Amino acid sequence: MDVSFYSIVGFLCAFAPNFTVLFVPRLLYGIGMGGEWGLGAALAMEKVPEKRRGFFSGLLQQGYPLGYLLASLIVISAAGLSWRWLFGLSILPALISLFIRSRVRESEVWENTQEKMRTTNSSFRDVFGNPAVLRRFGYAVCLLARRRPAVP
Known about the structure:
- By secondary structure, the protein is mostly helical.
- It has helices spanning 2-12, 19-47, 53-61, 63-77, 84-88, 91-103, 108-120, 124-128, 131-145.
- Helix 1 packs antiparallel against helix 2 (19-47) and helix 1 (2-12) packs antiparallel against helix 6.
């Protein structure tokens, strides 16, 4: 779902008539990409052997700078073309990732967790009615909502 969402809004960026209109789909693109990033990284790290996770985690993190470098090289080499065609191409990697995701099985870790959840019969009320969980949730909200100093 995230892949389809960010693919469509990335493609719509090619049709933005000005910067103000471009801002909205780029904002939505960031939300969709952020949703997919966490899921994809978690799935990738579950599939990688434990001893190699550090290396592959670093490989994932260098994807953004490498992508920016490749995009700038493409724009420089296609100087006569409009910037819009690059956004139009944003649908291709999403289609490729949808094809790959449709063929990847769920990780063993996720399947085992699902089995454990079925055997414990935990309900929503059991989890969120627990005072310890509510205290931790409140603490996390306070940490995230704290006032940050203004940057000069």
